[in-house]
Known about the structure:
Helix content is 22%, strand content 29%. The protein is built from four helices and ten strands. The strands form two sheets. A seven-stranded mixed sheet has the order 4-3-7-6-5-9-10. The protein has a three-stranded antiparallel sheet with strand order 1-2-8, with no helix packed on it. α1 (58-71) links the parallel β5 and β6 (77-83).
Amino acid sequence: xxxxxxxxxxxxxxxxxxxxxxxxxxxxxxxxxxxxxxxxxxxxxxxxxxxxxxxxxxxxxxxxxxxxxxxxxxxxxxxxxxxxxxxxxxxxxxxxxxxxxxxxxxxxxxxxxxxxxxxxxxxxxxxxxxxxxxxxxxxxxxxxxxxxxxxxxxxxxxxxxxxxx
Length: 165
């Protein structure tokens, strides 16, 4: 179990957060068209997992926009924006913002992801959502970089994540 803060208040995070050198846990999450997307379906590509509470918060929206802008210049890399939002909300947000360089995925039918990736907010006002984190994987799903953002209201270290590629 880890802990982070939300506006300075401690929040318990359940599960085991992956660290550099780990093999990423398998997952299947839900795309905006309600199809299932598994980690194994992306074998051979590098992956940036941008994990956050909700598209409907300013910092989360900023992280999606930032990674969307960076994604267009990344070779053989996909950016997965993962939250507990329903696929409909993710599709609405990305469509309204014109964000087409990232893949939005929901934990709707993949709740085991939040525990397996150590981002399960267990208490406080955001309980049931995912903590803010970035996990970078190589083509074989080995963790190259991971950051569990210590304050949920802060942006991740984009440059460190991109440098790991």
